């Protein structure tokens, strides 16, 4: 579990944008918070899982994929902005992510 700082926010945004630009062969400067992962970038759920693994390693996170899956069912991710915000919650709360709905 980590405290979210402005530095963390900038890092997460940069990693997400760079990841989708590379994976989807998109111009990073054209990807915004409102960019649809599926409609605009032709992304998929496997990309999300790969990104989770990148963040787990970078921030030494202890979170199970089933926890993220249960949270995502109630809080679907459609845009880059939503994905970035969910990633912040994962970094900050790890396996206590589901407690946010209580």
Provide an overview of this structure.
By secondary structure, the chain is an all-alpha fold. The protein has a single domain (6-101), classed as Orthogonal Bundle (Non-ribosomal Peptide Synthetase Peptidyl Carrier Protein, Chain A). It has four helices and no strands. α1 (6-23) crosses α4.
Q: Report on the biggest sheet.
A: none
> Which structural class best describes the helix and strand composition?
mainly alpha
What is the overall pLDDT average?
A: 93
Shape: globular
Give the uncertain stretches in residue-range form. none
Number of helices: 4
The CATH superfamily turns out to be ACP-like
**What is the ordering of alpha helices and beta strands?**
HHHH
Strand content: under 5%
Q: Tell me the span between the first and last alpha carbons.
A: 19 Å
CATH topology: Non-ribosomal Peptide Synthetase Peptidyl Carrier Protein, Chain A
Strand elements, count: 0
The domain tally reads 1
CATH architecture: Orthogonal Bundle
Question: What is the helix fraction of residues, given as a range?
Answer: 40-55%
Radius of gyration: 13 Å
In short:
The protein is mostly helical and 102 residues long. The chain has four helices and no strands. It has one domain (6-101): Orthogonal Bundle (Non-ribosomal Peptide Synthetase Peptidyl Carrier Protein, Chain A).
